[in-house]
Automatic annotation (TrEMBL), chain A:
The keyword Transport applies. This is Galactose/methyl galactoside import ATP-binding protein MglA. Belongs to the ABC transporter superfamily. Keywords: ATP-binding, Cell membrane, Hydrolase, Membrane, Nucleotide-binding, Repeat, Sugar transport, Translocase, Transport. Its main location: membrane. Residues 8-243, 260-508 form the ABC transporter domain. One of its GO terms (molecular function) is ATP binding. It comes from the Bacteria. Its EC number is 3.6.3.17. The gene is mglA_2.
TrEMBL record, chain B:
The chain crosses the membrane at residues 12-30, 65-84, 91-113, 162-179, 209-226, 283-303, 310-332, 352-371. It is a multi-pass membrane protein. InterPro entries: ABC_transp_permease (IPR001851). This is L-arabinose transporter permease protein. It is found in: Cell membrane. The keyword rRNA-binding does not apply. Its main location: membrane. It comes from the Bacteria. Keywords: Cell membrane, Membrane, Transmembrane, Transmembrane helix. GO terms for cellular component: plasma membrane. It comes from Octadecabacter ascidiaceicola.
Length: 513, 387
């Protein structure tokens, strides 16, 4: 036992949601003034553990010690009082409030607002100086970027005098440059004696800034090591429980004819904002074009136009023939009939109907296919079921039960259902949006292999992802989008994360050179 | 139209606007906290009945008012239980309250008073009577002969019941609460982002219940005003869809107190016109110009909008044009004169048309004629902690 009490000590924490044991007898010690990483696959129980610490859930068993003091945390108010601040993955900000109002909310000094706001304004100024956290206190949240919004979340915690800061997947929405800036801020906070817990699934971040790292797997804390004494491959193995391929294994592409040609695509939304500005590119048979960019820079709209559920002006050629951008034949059904398959970005809202069975979900969009029809009136459920069973077996969907509702599968297995449905149609062009968002490492590996296999079968693939690692690993060619425009194209072998990161932040070709 | 008529019209507008305004602010508090309240109508109706009944029994209108507020709060809490605690569908719960109030008020009224579902007329001291300000003229004949300033003071400023003045005061009060107090900040936050409120360590449930109870109080006053100040007793369905018009006014007002006052005064003006000008006479050509003109404006506007608006506004335009044509042809054949000559005939404007003005306006407002109104983001959604 060291003489300094740990900032946080959890002893024997357990939590079950129904039959699912989210946390199993977890014990962890985090020393003050350190950055402690918690890494694990989706569903490993990281967020549950932190939610218990922040008073969102009540643990079934176990004890919490803050700076050596046994502490009971029944709600968030108690966590805040104990000096714990949390920055959630999805920010908890009121969109139409100012920065100042968001900071003050819940930490007001009295029944009237004016004095609280004045005090907070002063406090924010000194915090900004102390930690280089500059934010305009009067800016409205919906008008500022995600990087700024994250600073507001950190300021919220600091304003409440948090000594312990928990960040849940903080870099998911940031450009590499913004992420570096965040890490500088975290380093600064650490110097000032704050304790930081960083939850992430990105191995690189763990290696870069943490002092110690704990690995979680299936609700258990499998190991805690000093970051300096481990490496990414070792951590990945601890997370998954077996050896994992971190790099995508693929042979060089053999691009052939141009399958998809996009010329001067423009979208102006109802507010008059240009979402796409003259986007042009092409994708050849047998290659993967990766589109990198921070989310919200037009990639989603691009996929929606190509998939047939967003209108645009411009020209799209598939195999040299124009496809309709407006009118009755501009819908998703017509696109699929032309050989465009689509794995949408948001699988829970666009890719699947969560309350419907896996079998139904494997047929959706292609349910007019004669093989699913018994006669002109009735669908052939037996055929759908048999087809679904085959797909689920081939794509290793677990559990392999076609009668189970989509919502009852894990994120990775849901995604496998979508990927199976689209790839099995043998499309000429596959659109893939965020194929591995919220998918665990094991399933990522599998999905990546399937995409590469489709490429090797001579199909064109358009990949949109906000994960730079994924873009770098999978693509044969990389286009970067910023503010509705293509900033430029690069070959993966001839570029690096730094250059792409600058392009993602809107720095043009000329300036990077 | 002389000045006194305008003053009278303004006076009537305010009177008609007050119940709308109170209901509108009730909806404002509720919806700003993220709870849709389609049951404003039912709460007003229940309060109208109970405050009339209790005023009658106790002889004290203030006791009646309290009873009205009480029943309205009770219904609010039922709505809260359904939509906050049990996370049910807020629209269904609201509709249930409306049905419940519409049926039960009549049944109980019949059971207690046996006068066909109404309460007996309230005696003068069991009602809210007009307050006459010092120096104000009270007799219509005196007022008509007074100076314009005096007319304005006597008719428009003075002579309303205390609930009117209270009702008008709720506007600045609501604004102050929403924008200047801690409670208001939290209330606005819970309707936009309940998760932000929850993670800040504040109870979402408590805030939403407070909002719903405030809505109950305001609806209670609105109901009592109808049966003890505007009229002397309760009659079946006496709220006459004011709860729904208040919701339209709320959208029109973009969920802001001062705008709500404006919206409700406008609706009040429609009601006042309807009350006063039952027998308005106009030349047929003017009726045609007005109706066909507004139909044309609506059609042109509708064509630039989404499908649903085309349906609503287009349909409405057709109806207006049809009324215009019927009036024209009707005049021509009724008087036995030529179509052109009929244009210059002076006829009574169909009273149904004037009566339907506020409702037409509601439809137009709801079809989005007044620009985009962005409702509170978390409106209508029960708050569930995410995993």
């Amino acid at each position: 036992m060291s003489e300094i009490a740990p900032a946080i000590e959890l002893v024997g924490i357990s939590k079950a949601f129904g039959p699912v044991q989210a946390n199993k007898d977890i014990s962890i010690r985090v020393m003050p003034g350190t950055i402690h990483g918690i890494i694990g696959e989706n569903g490993a129980g990281k967020s549950t553990l932190m939610s218990i610490l922040y008073g969102f859930y009540k643990a079934d068993a176990g004890e919490i010690f803050i700076s050596g003091q046994k502490t009971v945390i029944p709600d968030s108010q108690a966590a805040i009082a104990a000096g714990i601040g949390m920055v959630f993955q999805h920010f908890k900000l009121v969109q139409n409030f100012s920065v100042l109002e968001n900071v003050v909310l819940g930490a007001e000094d009295g029944a009237l607002l004016r004095p609280s706001l004045a005090k907070a304004r002063k406090q924010l100024k000194s915090l900004a100086e102390e930690y280089e956290l500059n934010v305009d206190p009067d800016a409205i949240i919906q008008d500022i970027g995600v990087g700024m919004q994250q600073r507001v979340e950190i300021l919220k915690a600091l304003y409440r005098q948090a000594d312990i800061l928990i960040l849940d997947e903080p870099t998911g929405v940031l450009t590499p440059a913004e992420a570096d800036q965040l890490f500088r801020i975290l380093g600064r906070l650490k110097e000032e004696g704050k304790t930081i817990i960083l939850i992430t699934h990105k191995l690189r971040e763990i290696m870069d800034i943490t002092d110690t790292v704990s690995v979680m797997r299936r609700g258990e804390m499998t190991s805690t090591v000093k970051t300096s004494e481990t490496n990414p491959a070792d951590l990945a193995e601890r997370m998954v429980g077996r050896k994992v391929l971190l790099r995508v294994d693929k042979v060089p592409a053999q691009p052939k004819d141009v399958i998809l040609e996009v010329k001067d695509l423009n979208i102006t939304d109802e507010k008059g904002v240009h979402r796409l500005k003259g986007v042009s590119f092409n994708v050849r048979a047998g290659e993967i074009l990766g589109i990198a960019g921070v989310s919200g820079n037009g990639q989603s709209e691009l996929l929606e136009v190509l998939g047939g559920y967003e209108k645009a002006t411009g020209e799209i050629l598939l195999n040299g023939e124009a496809i309709d951008l407006t009118g009755a034949f501009s819908d998703g059904q017509s696109r699929r009939a032309r050989g465009i398959a689509h794995v949408p970005e948001d699988r829970q809202h666009e890719g699947l109907i969560m309350d419907f069975t896996a079998a139904e979900n494997t047929a959706f969009g292609y349910h007019h296919d004669p093989k699913y029809q018994r006669n002109r009136l009735l669908m052939d459920n037996a055929a759908i079921m048999k087809d679904a069973q085959e797909k689920m077996d081939r794509f290793d969907v677990r559990p392999p039960n076609p009668m189970l509702a989509a919502k009852n599968f894990s994120g990775g297995n849901q995604q496998k259902v979508v990927v199976a449905r689209e790839i099995e149609r043998d499309p000429d062009l596959l659109l893939v949006g965020q194929p591995t968002r919220g998918v665990d490492i094991g399933a990522i590996e599998f999905i990546h292999q399937q995409i590469v296999a489709l490429r090797d079968a001579g199909k064109a693939i358009l990949l949109v992802s906000v994960e730079l690692d994924e873009i770098m690993g999978l693509s044969d060619r990389i286009a970067v989008m910023f503010d509705g425009q293509i900033m430029g194209e690069r070959l993966p072998a001839e570029t690096d994360e730094k250059e792409l990161g600058l392009m993602m932040a809107g720095v043009t070709d000329g300036e990077t050179a | 139209m002389d000045f006194f008529t305008i003053v009278q019209l303004g006076d009537a507008s305010v009177r008609m606007a007050i119940p709308l305004l109170l209901a509108c602010l009730a909806g404002l508090f509720s919806e700003r906290a993220g709870i849709f309240d389609i049951g404003l109508e039912g709460k007003m109706l229940a309060a109208a009945f109970l405050s009339a009944a209790v005023s009658l029994a106790s002889g004290n209108v203030w006791v009646g008012l309290l009873a009205g507020i009480g029943i309205s709060i009770t219904l609010s809490i039922i709505h809260g239980l359904a939509s906050i605690t049990f996370r049910g569908n807020q629209l269904i719960s609201g509709v249930a309250i409306n049905f419940f109030a519409a049926g039960l008020t009549v049944v109980i009224a019949q059971g207690w008073f046996a006068q066909g579902g109404r309460t007996p007329s309230l005696p003068k001291d069991a009602r809210f009577n007009g307050l006459d300000f010092p120096g104000a003229l009270t007799r219509v004949r005196d007022k008509m002969q007074a100076s314009p300033g005096m007319q304005f003071y006597s008719e428009f400023v003075s002579g309303h019941s205390i609930l009117v003045y209270l009702g008008l005061l709720t506007v600045p009060l609501s604004w102050w609460i929403l924008y200047r107090t801690r409670f208001g900040l939290r209330l606005r936050a819970v309707g936009e982002a309940p998760e932000a409120v929850d993670t800040a360590g504040i109870s979402v449930v408590r805030l939403r219940y407070s909002a719903v109870i405030i809505a109950g109080i305001l609806c209670g006053i609105a109901g009592a005003y109808l049966s003890t100040a505007v009229q002397a007793g309760f009659t079946k369905d006496m709220t006459a869809n004011r709860g729904f018009i208040a919701l339209a006014a709320l959208i029109f007002a973009k969920w802001r107190p001062w705008y709500a006052l404006g919206a409700c005064l406008l609706f009040g003006l429609f009601f006042a016109i309807d009350n006063r000008f039952q027998n308005i006479q106009l030349q047929v050509i003017w009726i045609m110009v007005l109706l066909v003109g507004s139909a044309a404006v609506m059609t042109v506007y509708a064509l630039r909008r989404e499908k649903i608006d085309v349906l609503v506004l287009g349909g409405l335009s057709v109806v207006l044009a049809a009324i215009a044509l019927v009036t024209w042809f009707g005049t021509a054949s009724g008087e036995g004169i030529g179509m052109i000559a009929a244009l210059w005939e002076t006829v009574k404007v169909p009273s149904q048309l004037i009566q339907s003005l506020p409702y037409l306006f509601v439809v137009i407002v709801l079809a989005g004629f007044v620009g985009k109104a962005i409702p509170p983001r978390a409106g209508g959604q029960p708050y569930v902690k995410e995993r």
